[in-house]
Structures are given as structure tokens and as C-alpha cells.
């Protein structure tokens, strides 16, 4: 049996890097270390210290501690070596037994009674605390009404000695403390019962505090220097028309920072060249959010929809049923720049990109019930000039997307009806039930456009983060075609790692693809599977494959394919996988702690 590689998405030290930039500085940005939504009905991997815990249903699976008579009830998970990271969870207090009781989220826990925790106290306060045995010290806090039966989103950011706490996207405390530099995460109650859900841990103690950089257009090569940034916004940010939205905004509000509007209202009101700042927190949505066709910016004045600097807005569509009509976020307009949002639990695609000349940057699409981010026409039967073209997907992550039959939910899916010029750069697709990248083609009213995938990563596709699998899933890293239609895609400087079937596969695409400088390791069947076509292969490396690679096309000695044993290059590509996004958005990948360059 082949040895399997341990997967670790590492904070700080570890990053899967398709490109190495000398002298990178700044914290890595939001690579997922851990997530648990308890929808699998269990809490495997958590360790208990007190209390009565079980998974119950509250719209979806949630983790409940039901004994409000317990002095302290705790559950811990994660790695004791985790240092700089963010942990976020939804928390619902159910009951308090007495006064000054609490429910809390914990970070950097080095023991059952040594941690940082962000607590909701029934005295009407949110407090960021240092717990060291029986000594409890407040770093800071804020008065707030805490109601039982209400969900709150708690987040702790730990970066060096700086610890910050957020409730519903708003900072309630910040300070410095050197007690613990690393540790696990935890869920805590003290003489209280509560429910916990949607626990996520991401790398980087603090997210970048500058607004999103202006991204490179799809047709230009990757930048060689850190893109310029503009200073953080004041109130309001300088230049252009600006609107603010928040989870508690109202349609008729002015959209100022102190009087925020809703996301759907702001989308219809923003002018070309303007920016919509989306405040942090969870937006619980039942209806698709749509940027309609005709709602366009221009090449010199894009419309921007951006996470507010330092905050993470989560568009949660768990109220939707699984249905092709129930997409999460639809981008039908042209010349938009979408930055820094999380889209989760939609009844179909998380994001459907149907417009042209858009930039989708720093997004996370997860737990959706079809592909996380799909490019396809918006209206069935629409002619080729209405197929999405010239879009750039940049520094984006898509994971744990799964449909009920396990057959269609990919991470990224530019498929079926796609125009020319679409580029995926510095993207990561992992733990999706079907494929990481699906470029399936289907004969229609015009030729399918070629897609470019570069400096990207696909790993563990076909198996969800909780270990779930589906027999109908194709489970490839990069599936590059279908239906015997020739499309000349470009795949370069990208990595396929331990996917459930092939790493890179032609999937009946008889075209002349450019496949160069890619690395494929430990995929269950073949690292490279090309049974037809006239594709050109240069400088590719294959290691530890399930079966011998199959190559038909123009291949020379610059490639090292698998034919039953590892070649000389493979010694450089051993050890656990890690990845993160650098401050400038580049994907940094490591194997065994060594940065990978392709």
C-alpha cells in the first residue's frame, strides 16, 4: 500500500506555494486550519472536560452543552502548536444558572484552565479574558445586551502578543498578553447551557488592515512586486461614492457607516467607481443576492464590493433548500471587484459568476450544495456573447461543497457555457465532494472558451474535511474537459495533491492544452491521465502515484512522469502539505516546511 501524506494547513511556517517571492512580509491571510459545522452528527476530534455534550438539530447540526449546573464545561480541539490564528464560532446561550455566568469561545488553550476566552456574561457584558488557573483577568470588554435563544458570532484574533475579541463583527476588546503563544481552541460554559456551531480556524492573527489592492487584470502576467495599496478608510473613506452595509442594516438607510443599509439595497445604489463596504458578521439570507445584468462598472471605474478592512462578512444561506434555483450570490454584471467575503450553505452554487471582466478576490466558498464558485451563463439558452468572459478569480479558496448525490459539487467550476479569457490565479480547492476544478464541456450554441489555471492548488477532493465521501463523485484535482470537445486550456505551475482519483486529467478533451511546470503527488489513481489529444507537456513532475501516468501528446524529457517509482525530483517534494496566502495575495505552498517553487 502506498504511504499517504499527512495533511496540515499550517499557520505562519507552512504554506503550499506555487510561487516563492523573496522577502515576503506580513501575516498570511485566512487559510483554513479547521472547520466543524456538526452536520455529520458527531463531534469526533473534540475532547471533553465537564458538562453534558451532544449534537442536536437547530436548523442544522449544532453542538450543545445542556447542563447549566456544571461549574465549568469545556470542549477542546486543534493543535497545541497553533500560534497566530483566528477562531470564530456562532454561539447561542440557552440558560444561565445564577448571576455573572458565561458562555465563551477560547483560543490558545494550553490546558483546561489556561487560555484566552471571549465570554458572553449574563450581567450584560462581552469580555475578553485571560484564564490562568483560578485567576481570571479581563483584557477588555464592552457592555451589551446578552439574550438567551439568540445566536452571536464570536471571533478571537491572536497575533503575537496581541489578542482581540469581536462580537458580530464589532471589536469589543483588544490588548496584549504573553501568557500563551500557542494552543488549541475551545468551547466553554460556566453554570450555563449553550449551543455552538460553524467553528472555523484560519491562519493569520489579524487580517490585513488596508483596503483590497487593485488587482492585476486577467490578461496580464502575475505581478513581480507587492501591488500598491491605498490607506485604510476614514469615516467615510476618501474618494468616490461609498456605501456601508451590516447584518442589521435596513433597506431605507442612508448607507453611511453610522446608518448602514442592506447588501441588496447597496448593490442597486452604488455608482461606477464606488465601493460597498460589507461589515463583519453573519448575514443570514434566504433569497439569492444578485448583481443583475446591466448593473455594470467600467474598465476605468469598477464597482467594488469589499469586506470592511479587518473584518470577515459571512453570507449564510442555510435557510435555502437544495435546489438549482437557490444560488447564493450571483454576479451578472460587468466590471465588478468582489473582495473578502465568505459565501456558505447555499442551496446550489455559492457564487455564480455570469458577467464579464470581473475580479473575484480573497473569497471563500464553502459548504454549498453545488459547486462553490461556478462560471456559466445566467439564462438557459443565452447566446455565446452572454457567456462569462475575461474574469479573474484571484487568491480564493473553495472547500467542502457537497450536493446530496455527491456528483456535481466542485470547488471551482468554469464549465458548460464559458467564454474566453477566464483566469484562476493563486486559488485553492480542497475537500469538495466531486472535483477540485471542473472544466467539463458540453456542445451548445458556440465554442467553449479556454480557461487558464495558474499557481493554484487542489488537494483531498472527493473527501470532505469530516471524512465523508460519495460514490458518484469523480474526485479529480483538475478535470479538464468532457464530451470529446477540443478546448485548449492552459494549466501551469499548479499542484495536485492526494485527490481521490486523478491529479490532472483530460476527461475526453482532445484539444491541444498547455500543461507545464505542474506537480502531482499521491493521487489515488493517476497523477497525470491524458488518453487523447495533442496537448503539450513540459517540466511536469509526478511522484507517488497510484498507477502509471498516461500521456498522449507532445511530451519530452523535461517531464518526470510516474512509471512505477519516484524519479530524482521527488526527494524535494516530501513531507506534510501546508499553504497560506501571503500579504500580497500570492499562494505560498510548503511540503515538509520547504517552500515549493515550480
From TrEMBL:
Stretch forming the signal peptide: 1-30
Keywords from the UniProt entry:
Calcium, Lyase, Metal-binding, Secreted, Signal
Disordered: annotated span: 201-261
The record places domain 3-keto-alpha-glucoside-1,2-lyase/3-keto-2-hydroxy-glucal hydratase at 36-201
What cofactors does this protein use?
Ca(2+)
- The keyword NADP is annotated on this UniProt entry: no
Top-level division of the source organism's lineage: Bacteria
Q: Which SUPFAM superfamilies match?
A: Concanavalin A-like lectins/glucanases, Pectin lyase-like
List the biased-composition ranges (Pro residues).
209-239
Its localization reads:
Secreted
InterPro entries, A to Z = AL/BT2_dom, ConA-like_dom_sf, Pectin_lyas_fold, Pectin_lyase_fold/virulence, Polysaccharide_Lyase_9, TAT_signal
As for family, the record states: Belongs to the polysaccharide lyase 9 family.
- This chain belongs to the protein called DUF1080 domain-containing protein
Amino acid at each position: 500500500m502506498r504511504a499517504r501524506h499527512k495533511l496540515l494547513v499550517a499557520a505562519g511556517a507552512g504554506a503550499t506555494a506555487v510561487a516563492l517571492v523573496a522577502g515576503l512580509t506580513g501575516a498570511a491571510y485566512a487559510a483554513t486550519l479547521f472547520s466543524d459545522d456538526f452536520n455529520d452528527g458527531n463531534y469526533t476530534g473534540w475532547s471533553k472536560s465537564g458538562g453534558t455534550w451532544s449534537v442536536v438539530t437547530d436548523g442544522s447540526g449544532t453542538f450543545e452543552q445542556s447542563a447549566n449546573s456544571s461549574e465549568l464545561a469545556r470542549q477542546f480541539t486543534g493543535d497545541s502548536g497553533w500560534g497566530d490564528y483566528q477562531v470564530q464560532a456562532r454561539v447561542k446561550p440557552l440558560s444561565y444558572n445564577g448571576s455573572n455566568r458565561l458562555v465563551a469561545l477560547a483560543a490558545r488553550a494550553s490546558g483546561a484552565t489556561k487560555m484566552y476566552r471571549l465570554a458572553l456574561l449574563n450581567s450584560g457584558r462581552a469580555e475578553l479574558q485571560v484564564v490562568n488557573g483560578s485567576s481570571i483577568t479581563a483584557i477588555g470588554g464592552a457592555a451589551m445586551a446578552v439574550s438567551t435563544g439568540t445566536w452571536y458570532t464570536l471571533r478571537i484574533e491572536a497575533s503575537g502578543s496581541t489578542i482581540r475579541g469581536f462580537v458580530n463583527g464589532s471589536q469589543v476588546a483588544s490588548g496584549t498578553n504573553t501568557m500563551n503563544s500557542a494552543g488549541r481552541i475551545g468551547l466553554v460554559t460556566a453554570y450555563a447551557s449553550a449551543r455552538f456551531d460553524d467553528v472555523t480556524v484560519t491562519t493569520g492573527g489579524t487580517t490585513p488592515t488596508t483596503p483590497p489592492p487593485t488587482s492585476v487584470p486577467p490578461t496580464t502576467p502575475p505581478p513581480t512586486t507587492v501591488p500598491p495599496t491605498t490607506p485604510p478608510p476614514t469615516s467615510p473613506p476618501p474618494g468616490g461614492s461609498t456605501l456601508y452595509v451590516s447584518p442589521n442594516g435596513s433597506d431605507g438607510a442612508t448607507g453611511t457607516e453610522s446608518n448602514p443599509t442592506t447588501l441588496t439595497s447597496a448593490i442597486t445604489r452604488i455608482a461606477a467607481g464606488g465601493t460597498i463596504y460589507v461589515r463583519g458578521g453573519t448575514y443570514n439570507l434566504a433569497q439569492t443576492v444578485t448583481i443583475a445584468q446591466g448593473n455594470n462598472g467600467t474598465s476605468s471605474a469598477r464597482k467594488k464590493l469589499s469586506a470592511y478592512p479587518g473584518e470577515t462578512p459571512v453570507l449564510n444561506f442555510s435557510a435555502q433548500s437544495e435546489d438549482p434555483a437557490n444560488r447564493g450570490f450571483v454576479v451578472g454584471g460587468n466590471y465588478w471587484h468582489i473582495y473578502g467575503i465568505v459565501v456558505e450553505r447555499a442551496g446550489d452554487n455559492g457564487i455564480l459568476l455570469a458577467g464579464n471582466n470581473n475580479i473575484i478576490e480573497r473569497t471563500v466558498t464553502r459548504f454549498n450544495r453545488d459547486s462553490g464558485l461556478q462560471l456559466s451563463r445566467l439564462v438557459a439558452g443565452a447566446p455565446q456573447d452572454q457567456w462569462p468572459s475575461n474574469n479573474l478569480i484571484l487568491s480564493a479558496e473553495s472547500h467542502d461543497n457537497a450536493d446530496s448525490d455527491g456528483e456535481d459539487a466542485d470547488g471551482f467550476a468554469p464549465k458548460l457555457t464559458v467564454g474566453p479569457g477566464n483566469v484562476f490565479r493563486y486559488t485553492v480547492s480542497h475537500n469538495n465532494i466531486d472535483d477540485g476544478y471542473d472544466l467539463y464541456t458540453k456542445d451548445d450554441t458556440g465554442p467553449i472558451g479556454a480557461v487558464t489555471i495558474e499557481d493554484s492548488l487542489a488537494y483531498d477532493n472527493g473527501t470532505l474535511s469530516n471524512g465523508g465521501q460519495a460514490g458518484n463523485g469523480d474526485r479529480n484535482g483538475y478535470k479538464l474537459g468532457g464530451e470529446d470537445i477540443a478546448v485548449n486550456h492552459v494549466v501551469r505551475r499548479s499542484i495536485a495533491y492526494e485527490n481521490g482519483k486523478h491529479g490532472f486529467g483530460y476527461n475526453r478533451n482532445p484539444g491541444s492544452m498547455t500543461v507545464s511546470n505542474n506537480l502531482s503527488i499521491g493521487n489515488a489513481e493517476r497523477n497525470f491521465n491524458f488518453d487523447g489529444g495533442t496537448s503539450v507537456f513540459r517540466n511536469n513532475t509526478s511522484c507517488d502515484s497510484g498507477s502509471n501516468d498516461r500521456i498522449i501528446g507532445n511530451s519530452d524529457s523535461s517531464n518526470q512522469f510516474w512509471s512505477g517509482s519516484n524519479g530524482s525530483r521527488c526527494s524535494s517534494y516530501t513531507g506534510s502539505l501546508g499553504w497560506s496566502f501571503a500579504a500580497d495575495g500570492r499562494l505560498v505552498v510548503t511540503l515538509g516546511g520547504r517552500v515549493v517553487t515550480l
